[in-house]
TrEMBL record:
Signal among keywords: no
PANTHER family linked to this entry: GLYCOSYLTRANSFERASE (PTHR43685), GLYCOSYLTRANSFERASE TAGX-RELATED (PTHR43685:SF11)
Domain Glycosyltransferase 2-like: 10-116
Keywords: Cell inner membrane, Cell membrane, Membrane, Transferase
TM stretches of this protein: none
MF terms (GO), sorted A to Z: transferase activity
Source species, domain of life: Bacteria
Protein name: Glycosyl transferase family 2
Entry keyword Transferase: yes
Length: 311
């Protein structure tokens, strides 16, 4: 008698994504892997999300709540998860049919791996592949210092490791996932599976820029304060000032995008004072681009998307 495949729990938080939701749900329900618990939480959507979910009664575990945000919604789903392995899928992204099976195989074969994630393709609003191979191998040092996170849709992690570090921090709005990966990396290795097994969707909502308050931007500093207060590898500790400089650069960028150029200029000066590398002209050019009006930036993003599609 064959042993039962370990249970995998996937959570999808959804907010006003009815247009894409059915494709995402189907991509999970059509997995070749035989033992999946699927939890979907409607986070107070005002569109047709609930009517879409009604079509799936009996096929998945779904509920509706007042809007709480992505982090709190994911935590609520993970709190009741029964799986040995858990993960999530955004309600506009997709999984290839054998994604879960391929990822579970990695976790089962190597107990030192706490998380595994696949490569993914960039897809447009119609599901057409725009660019292949978005992800790269995980590098904790670059994640901490340069905010470079290459973990895309489809990541699975061990439930016991997740419970030791806790879920996403609900007071973070800009990058709660990055902070989570920093903590989870202390529980074991994070493995990249170089197979395109997911689709990351690019659409009008995902390429628009939202104004970011100074309070939200300061999250970059808060995350670094918390990280460097713990046990840090010497190679990362040696780049501490560079990490803070890059955080100030991101704060400058956000201030420019939000129409606060003087504040952005002050943050940029602070970045340069902490690390001379930010005096390179390319960083100043990036800030200048961010002084463009929101409609211009969105238009430029759409042009880039068309060029990617043409390539």
């Amino acid at each position: 008698m064959m042993p039962q495949a370990p249970l995998v729990t996937l959570v999808t938080p959804t907010y006003n994504q009815a247009r894409y939701l059915q494709k995402s749900l189907d991509s999970v329900l059509e997995q070749t892997y035989p033992n999946i618990e699927y939890i979907v939480i409607n986070d107070g959507s005002s569109d047709d999300t609930e009517s879409v979910l009604n079509r799936y009664d009996g096929r998945l575990n779904w509920s509706t709540q007042a809007n709480q945000g992505q982090a709190a919604t994911l935590n609520a789903g993970w709190k009741v998860a029964q799986g040995k392995y858990i993960g999530y899928l955004s309600s506009d992204d997709l999984l290839a049919p054998d994604a879960v099976a391929r990822l579970v195989a990695v976790l089962e074969q190597d107990p030192s791996v706490v998380c595994v994630y696949p490569d993914c393709d960039l897809i447009d609003e119609h599901g057409v592949v725009v660019k292949r191979g978005l992800c790269k191998g995980f590098d904790l040092e670059e994640l901490v210092v340069r905010q470079e996170c290459h973990i895309g849709p489809g990541a699975l992690f061990r439930a016991d490791g997740f419970r030791r570090v806790g879920g996403w921090k609900t007071y973070l709005h800009l990058a709660p996932d990055r902070e989570f990966w920093m903590r989870l990396a202390g529980e074991g290795s994070i493995r990249f599976l170089p197979e395109s097994l997911a689709g990351y969707r690019l659409h009008a909502q995902s390429i628009s820029y939202q104004s970011t308050s100074d309070e939200q931007s300061k999250e970059y500093l808060q995350v670094l304060d918390e990280y460097f207060a713990g046990n840090v590898a010497p190679s990362i500790l040696a780049r501490k000032q560079e990490a803070y400089a890059f955080a100030y650069f991101l704060m400058a960028r956000n201030a420019m995008r939000s129409g606060r150029p003087l504040r952005g200029g002050r943050y940029f000066v602070e970045a340069c004072s902490r690390h001379r590398g930010f005096m390179h002209p390319r960083y100043l050019l990036q800030l200048v681009r961010n002084t463009l009006s929101k409609p211009v930036r969105v238009a430029m993003a759409r042009v880039r998307a068309r060029r990617l599609r043409a390539d």
